[in-house]
Write a structure and sequence with these properties.
The chain is mainly alpha-helical. The chain has one domain. 90% of the residues lie in helices and 0% in strands. It is built from 3 helices and no strands. The two termini are 35 Å apart. It comes from Aestuariivirga litoralis. Keywords: Membrane, Transmembrane, Transmembrane helix. This is Phage holin family protein.
Amino acid sequence: MNLNNLSRHIRLILRGELLMLQAKLAFALKRSAFVGFALLFAGLGLVFVNMGLFAWLSPLWGPVWTPAGLGLINLALAAAALAVAAAVKPGPEMALAEEIRNMAADSIETEIRSAPLMGGLGAGSMAGLVLPAVSTIIGAMARRRKEKA
């Protein structure tokens, strides 16, 4: 194993992490923009629908039950909108970025296990030190990614 291959694989891991971060950010930005736009018009529409329903239901339900009923209907609509927003999933670019990162990590692990390191040190002696460190770093990055998702 030489340092060029190791640095190339580490750059690939970092590039994969950056691609995943960019994909998450773009996804969050798109979803936030559409949700904000939809909420603006939904809010305006809901105000006018509530005014119309209030005028129509006031003689039937009375001045106390009409606002209570409309409030419950509004809460149900809000819960449905939140359920739809929670169901949206990221696109295929996230899977591609994860695949790049995992391939680079596997390549680093394979090279560390198989090839002698520079300076005449055997693969077994140095791999015993480097491999757990790399595995710990990659595991920490994966845990952090899962916690944020």
